[in-house]
Design a protein that fits this description.
About 65% of the residues lie in helices and about 0% in strands. The protein is built from 3 helices and no strands. The longest helix has 24 residues.
């Protein structure tokens, strides 16, 4: 996992956690019987997990690395 991929996954976790908290705060669970949304910590964790998974679907261009051994072998 390169730095860009890790940064995107971290941003997904942070954004997902924030959105999970926002859902808890705005919608929440009125009865308290909801397994995930009744507790703000679970909502943040679930949102962060979803953010991590969604960030995994972002495609990255893989740039080929130049091999210094192959360049010296050609000359």
């Amino acid at each position: 996992m390169n730095r860009v991929s890790m940064a995107v996954h971290l941003a997904g976790v942070i954004l997902g956690g924030f959105l999970g908290w926002l859902y808890y705060y705005k919608v929440g669970c009125v009865t308290g019987h909801c397994a995930i949304w009744a507790n703000p910590w679970r909502a943040i964790g679930f949102g962060g997990l979803l953010g991590f998974v969604v960030a995994g679907f972002i495609p990255f261009k893989k740039t080929p690395r130049s091999n210094p051994d192959s360049e010296s072998a050609e000359s």
